[in-house]
Write a structure and sequence with these properties.
Elements lengths: L4 H8 L2 E2 L9 E3 L9 E4 L12 H6 L4 E4 L6 E3 L3 H15 L4 E5 L4 H12 L2 E2 L7 H13 L5 E4 L7 H9 L3 E4 L7 H4 L2 H8 L1 H5 L2 E4 L14 E6 L7 E8 L4 E5 L2 E5 L4 H16 L4 H8 L10 E4 L3 E5 L6 H13 L4 E6 L8 H11 L5 E5 L4 H5 L5 E3 L2 H9 L5 E6 L7 H8 L10
Parallel strand pairs: 2-3, 3-4, 4-5, 6-8, 6-9, 7-8, 9-10, 10-11, 11-12, 16-20, 17-18, 17-20, 18-19
Antiparallel strand pairs: 1-5, 12-13, 13-14, 15-16
Helix pairs in contact: 3-5, 4-10, 4-11, 5-6, 10-11, 12-13
Length: about 425
């Protein structure tokens, strides 16, 4: 099955360039994502137009370009983004496989990765959870149907979940957590709960015990609640048998195995994956074997054992709930303990209060470094902490700081604290840096 220029032109109310264009085997809307045979959707941006990257996409092997302006090797349509969504919706209508949608205020990507591993399912890559990215994933699944498809649904405004459910039409759902996140667009945690709970209301599924305090009335009766044996109100539980620095031994559905990531949060994610695998007929021992080899995306609780200290790279994103879990993981390692924390963005009117709480939560750690404008409030609550306005200033301070024991790096995506991780990894010789 392929995507032709003529089909897209007709679907989008446009036209294709003169001459025959080769069919596409997939779609992409970022030039960095283009693979040979993709149709590249050159979307208009705030500062640059996607057509600026058309030559790069074609050099990578793109079959043709889709844009709102003519291109010699392109399809011209009035609204290429709308066309991508329309094609994604059409692709979804042709899919007859179980589609599992995962949402939550934290833990979406790691839970999705574990479910995908346990089921050997196709999934959205990384944390690509926007409508356009989901449309891209749906088209890929339509062109090469998997046995199962796991999708991550991310929202930051009221109404987003409605649009994502309408596009993806999930058959099953997983809700990992309801907590303070994206408050600049959602207002408060009650609205976060209202939006997140639209998913289990639309598709029966699994809800983490961590989400129960804010689960809307009526949903508990037709949800399967998962968690650890210390959680209350669970239908499926797992327990931590033994914890080590970079892994933990779990027992879930009667099977013991080692999960290569620490923390109770990761353990709950594994329970979700095991529960879904069992529901779809996968033997627990087989699912456990797959989870014991799971590898998450960079920046998500990656443990690096360096000559002088252990680096906990949780730099991909941050909000109050995921920060609390990360600090718990940090203090489970042998000390001394150092936290390098960036702003938690998109917290709206509650930002100052939540950053003050972040500062209080770090009291008692041997070293604390904050970076960013919002984190100035956190530094005010911890007199021992160092505050830097920029990542560059932070790196200069870290260059003079003795680091030992365990070091956590965490911040919102917009802070780009992977730069700090790379600087810390460079303290080790190349042979000592884990791959």
């Amino acid at each position: 099955m392929m995507v032709t220029a003529a089909w897209l032109a007709a679907l989008g109310g446009g036209s294709s360039a003169a001459g025959e264009l080769p069919p596409a085997h997939g779609v992409a809307f970022h030039s960095a994502q283009v693979r040979p045979g993709d149709a590249f959707f050159a979307l208009p941006g705030a500062s640059r137009h996607g057509l600026d990257y058309a030559a790069e996409a074609l050099a990578k092997g793109a079959a043709f370009i889709v844009a709102d302006r003519p291109h010699p090797r392109g399809v011209t349509v009035p609204d290429p983004a709308g066309l991508l969504l329309k094609a994604g919706a059409l692709a979804r209508s042709q899919l007859a496989v179980p589609i599992i949608a995962v949402t939550g205020s934290a833990g979406k990507t790691s839970t999705k990765a574990m479910i995908s591993a346990a089921l050997e399912a196709a999934a959205t890559p990384g944390n690509l959870n926007t409508p356009l990215a989901l449309a891209q994933t749906l088209i890929a699944a339509w062109l090469k149907p998997p046995r199962y498809l796991v999708l991550e649904l991310g929202i930051d405004r009221v109404g987003d979940m409605d649009a994502l459910i309408a596009l993806t039409k999930p058959t099953h759902s997983v809700l990992t957590l309801i907590a303070s996140s994206h408050l600049s667009g959602l207002g408060d945690i009650r609205q976060v709960a209202a939006e997140k709970c639209k998913l289990p209301a639309a598709a029966r599924g699994w809800v983490s015990a961590a989400a129960l305090p804010y689960l809307l009335p009526g949903l508990r009766a037709h949800s399967i609640v998962y968690g650890l044996d210390s959680d209350v109100g669970c239908d499926v539980t797992g327990r931590v048998i033994r914890s080590e620095a970079a892994r933990q031994q779990l027992e879930i559905l009667g099977v013991r195995f080692w999960l290569p990531y620490p923390s109770p949060v990761m353990a709950r994610n594994a329970v979700a994956a095991m529960a879904l695998a069992q529901a779809f007929g996968v033997e627990p021992a087989q699912a456990a074997a797959r989870l014991s080899a799971v590898r998450l995306e960079p920046g998500r609780l990656q443990i690096h054992t360096l000559p002088s200290f252990t680096l906990i790279d949780d730099s991909y994103n941050s909000n109050p709930a995921s920060l609390a879990a990360a600090l718990q993981t940090l203090t489970a390692f042998p000390g001394p303990h150092t936290a390098i924390l960036g702003d938690m963005l998109e917290l709206g009117l509650e930002s100052e209060v939540l950053h003050l709480a972040m500062g209080r939560a770090t009291r008692g750690l041997e070293q604390v470094f904050f970076v960013g404008a919002e984190s100035r409030a956190a530094a005010a609550e911890n007199p021992q902490a160092h505050h830097a306005a920029t990542v560059e200033a932070l790196l200069a301070a870290l260059a003079q700081a003795p680091l030992a024991g365990a070091v956590l790096v965490k911040g919102s995506r917009g802070m780009r604290l992977e730069r700090v991780v790379q600087a810390l990894l460079s303290r080790a010789t190349p042979s000592e840096v884990p791959t």
